[in-house]
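We append the chain.
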Amino acid sequence: MRLHNFRTYRKILCSTGFARTVWGACRNLRADSRGERLPAGPYLAELDVTYRCNLECRMCQRWRDPRRGELSLADYRTLAVELSGLGTHQISIAGGEPLLRPEIFEIIEAFAGRGLSVNLCTNGLLLRRYRREIAASGARCVTVSLDGTSPGSHDRLRGRPGAHAAVEGGIEAFLSSRANGLPILRVRMTVSQVNAGEVGAFYRRWAGVAEDVLLQPLHHCADAFYTGMEPEAVQPDPAVLARELGGTPLAADPYLQRWIEALKVGTGVPERPCYAGVLMARIDPWGNVYPCLEQHVRVGSIRGASFAAVWNGEALRRERGRLANGRGCRCWYNNTALIGHFGGLLAKSLGAFGLVGGRCRPGAALPPSRGAAGPLRG
């Protein structure tokens, strides 16, 4: 979705280093269109700091992962120095549930202290307990998942009775602990057939309370972590979704309108140009690097190598070439942090001046399947 409240997001978009990041993103797009080495780092780096979780969400499988031995605080401090030097602007800290990580606030500070804009993604269960620490952490944004207005829908999807009430209470406590309106609060609903009929009520509940209300399409991705729900339960009825959006400002959102049209023709989510490995990257709790936030293909690890070495290494160079010439994107991740919209605007501007050309990023095919073995996660 596009920005619904620029007055709120200006605190992120106009923060230190954003202009440098836009320039680096433009240079990356130009270099990628020519098959050249990228001169800057990703606009967005999503960091999963743990897969431990206090929920058992139906659509996510991360909480089932038994591995331990995550990256250390020292590793994240080193990564913060490197990403800052590469011109990265947006850091999204996720999981699992990141607030289960003992050093989470030191991790946030490592990036925020270098001027990077940190978004903390949380399921909200620990929001009340850590409200003061979050407010003082230096994070610029907190995104809380809340899947509907009724405890029945949310708790069913998230696998824990009482979760809905705990999250709502945590949000109220967090809002009372902020100073100067920071971090900004976004409330995000993952929309499926289970809860699509609550979209309108959800927007009305949180509009004017949170700084932004987000709707995240849920999709079934056979070779990633989102495989828990049966495919027929993933996609909402487009007529229901259109009805629920009616009468809200979200009805005018171009992405949501394309989502409804995609649902009508059975393609799930809208196709977008793919900027995996050019404007974004994901790093799992053990340092494995993926160009796509969906984690289809592992291209290296920051354990034993610098992020810059992986970012411009041969494995990621080959993957960029495949993505540029082989497929577009039909996953909601490409819309995360406005990557699709942001990249599209920059590419269009560069194209108007003849500064990009050669390889293209079409939007048609689905991601490559890894079969029963799953993605190359390392």
Notes: Confidence is low (pLDDT under 50) at residues 362-378.
